[in-house]
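HUMAN: Forgive my ignorance: could you write out one protein's sequence and backbone structure tokens?

ASSISTANT:
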Amino acid sequence: MIGAPTYMFGRDGRPDRTGGAFRLGYGLTESFGVEGKAAFFDGVTLVGGDGHFRLLDGDTKLSLGVGGHQAVMSSGPDSTALDLAAEVRTRLERRLDLYAGTSFSYEFVDGASGSDFTHVYLVPGLRYALGDRASLSIEAGLGFNHDSPHYVAAAVAWRVPVSAAARGRH
């Protein structure tokens, strides 16, 4: 479970937005998990899901994600998106991880032919383990095109193991 207050910096005359992002996931295997996601901002609601596959495990981790979301807009057409992501994470100390990733989202605008667009981000961040099951992450999303607003987020994550095998994992 993750909850993250988020601040997006408007670009090209668009407004700044403050909101929150939330994720709830479940590990189906040691290296594959699924999660639902939602974010709420003034005038924008995002709802979707992802699947994550860990390709490399150890002190350095590499994972890929694929999913989608629906954007519901209060003052414009809604959109449906295909989301792709990659992340590398390395342990700096026993409780501190450094990570960097990239995400790509292709948005299909509902009912507006020729208005589709993309979001492309570089996402560096830090994760600090507060305990065995709780952590704090701080990240920044650096938008690579004019459709991708920069953002900062501070997330609190709570891991709830549901099996005996999962209780021993971190």
Summary: The chain is about 0% helix and 70% strand. The mean pLDDT is 91. The longest strand covers residues 60-73.
